[in-house]
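One-letter codes give the sequence; backbone shape is given numerically. An example follows:

. . .
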Amino acid sequence: MNGETLLAPGFDGIKGLTISNAIHLSDWTHEMVTLPIDQAKYKELLMQKVQRSHIKDGSKEDLSINFGVTSTRWEVQW
């Protein structure tokens, strides 16, 4: 902005979003994916998720109890 050098150019953000989309696609298909991802397949599966989504009632449990604790689902073996 205002002629200043950007700390993180926009294309870096796109790369991060691409990785995020690849993670979702892999989860939805239970398959390994390669980059670039199949955009048509991603959009199709995303739209299926949108069609099945609905507003949930508010949570009644105190979610702050587990603050900082992650599920084993997020443990990644690189």
Summary: The two ends are 37 Å apart (CA to CA). The mean pLDDT is 84. DSSP finds two helices and no strands in the chain.
